[in-house]
Design brief:
Elements: H1 2-22, H2 30-37, H3 43-63, H4 67-79, H5 88-112, E1 118-128, E2 143-152, E3 159-166, H6 167-190
Antiparallel strand pairs: 1-2, 2-3
Length: 191
């Protein structure tokens, strides 16, 4: 019975940590978890357990470990000497938790990494001004690029932003985009 209670408490701890870290539940504090799950455990021991489980969950989630990676990682953790490792029971609880929560944690991490508002759509066209459209002037204007951006936040209606660029502005925009691409390439090649 004691093993079942320990497994249940550890499962509750892992779920509580996930609620706080990945689902932004500020009510799921370390103090609440200790009070509800580990009332008899001294504060220092609980703090160490909480920190170890949080670190392990973050490592597992950051690597988005599949089953084989998870088993290899947990095996290595159970073999660690000193206070940094985990018991076989803790490894089993971590494995059960990750198998059931991997998709939700991954979705939460993806949602947290998105910029808001996001770009939902883009449309563009190039217009040529004629003498008639410029009020009868004899000299027709150059091409004009019209760009419409559809922006939106999750669960909200879209907003539309319309931009107009003449040839000079298009060339400046293309130069800036090339500069950004070079910067990204430079960072990508360093890592």
């Amino acid at each position: 019975m004691a093993d079942a209670d320990a497994a249940k408490s550890l499962s509750g701890l892992l779920n509580g940590i996930a609620q706080r870290v990945y689902h932004n539940n500020a009510d799921m504090t370390e103090e609440l978890l200790q009070h509800e799950l580990y009332r008899e455990l001294p504060r220092e021991e609980f703090t160490a357990l909480h920190a170890r489980m949080t670190g392990l969950l973050k490592s597992i989630a950051a690597a988005d470990m599949d089953h084989a990676q998870l088993e290899a990682f947990l095996t290595a953790q159970t073999r660690r000497q000193g206070g940094g490792g985990v018991t076989a029971e803790q490894a089993a609880a971590l494995s059960r938790f990750w198998k059931s929560q991997r998709v939700r944690v991954r979705e939460s991490l993806l949602a947290q990494s998105r910029w808001e508002p996001g770009l939902r759509g883009l449309s563009w066209r190039v217009d040529l001004q004629t003498a008639a459209s410029r009020g009868g002037a004899a000299e027709p204007g150059g091409p004009v690029a019209l760009v419409e951006l559809e922006l939106g936040r999750a669960g909200q209606d879209s907003e539309f932003v319309c931009l107009e660029f003449d040839e000079t502005k298009v060339n400046q925009l293309l130069k800036k985009m090339a500069d950004v691409q070079r910067s990204v390439d430079g960072i990508a090649h360093r890592s």
